[in-house]
Amino acid sequence: MTQAVVLFGSPGSGKGTLANLLKDYLKAPHISTGDMLREHIREGNALGVRVAATMQTGALVRDEVVDRLVERRLAEPDAQAGFILDGYPRTREQAERLCNWLDSRGIRELVIHLIVDYNIIVTRLAGRRQCPRCGTLYNMVSNPPRVEGVCDLDGQALAIRDDDRESVIRARLAAYESQSRPLIEFFREKGRRLFEIDASDRTPEALLSQVCREIGSPEAGLRAEPAVSG
Prior knowledge:
- The longest helix is centred in the last third of the chain and has 15 residues, at 166-180.
- The strands form two sheets. A five-stranded parallel sheet has the order 2-3-1-4-7, with helices on both faces. A two-stranded antiparallel sheet has the order 5-6.
- Helix 1 (15-26) crosses helix 9 (204-214) and helix 2 (33-43) crosses helix 3 (46-57).
- The radius of gyration is 17 Å and the shape is globular.
- By secondary structure, the chain is α/β, with parallel strands linked by helices.
- A hairpin with a 6-residue loop joins strand 5 (128-130) and strand 6.
- The protein has a single domain (3-118, 166-221), classed as Rossmann fold (3-Layer(aba) Sandwich), CATH 3.40.50.300.
- It has helices at 15-26, 33-43, 46-57, 63-74, 92-104, 118-126, 166-180, 183-189, 204-214; strands spanning 3-8, 30-32, 82-86, 109-115, 128-130, 137-139, 193-198.
- Helices cover 44% and strands 14% of the residues.
């Protein structure tokens, strides 16, 4: 049976880090709309040019653009047995489209909502740096590189992503609160499987432990604190 996990939470809540850990246990691809869009921007193709200005301001890319990217990615062979969605859906229209797509294929998803304090989010994102070559993310406070300002893997100088600048961070959080956060109520209303975790001060490994228990992974026996709600 296809296992679909939808990671939900504000920018900087740790969705990407959790997804990278979770994909090894589920043997399923991590599908990040943000990563896909940034790859188009790096390539400088027509789509990248169209969405670059939107992402740099912290606004959401149009539904039809993101929907098309996600549907094409989910049609690829490695996603047929399961997948982890990170950054999608972001609007009610996207959520309705995803639920219809899942239901038409008999796939029962698990929505995981990571809850993190606003001030912690701002601190995390303001301290984030990324390698422009390999894409590895660092945080100058919680996960710094071995040599300041340099990627551990390839020695490339680290950079601040355009969407991690403070003014953009606040715009991204405002967009999340107004357009994306209400989707939690949407999932509740529709009776979808929803698991919420306070991720403000949990390590990625502790979060992984809780999520694995919820989805019935063999890793369920790892030590973890109880969830906020489920």
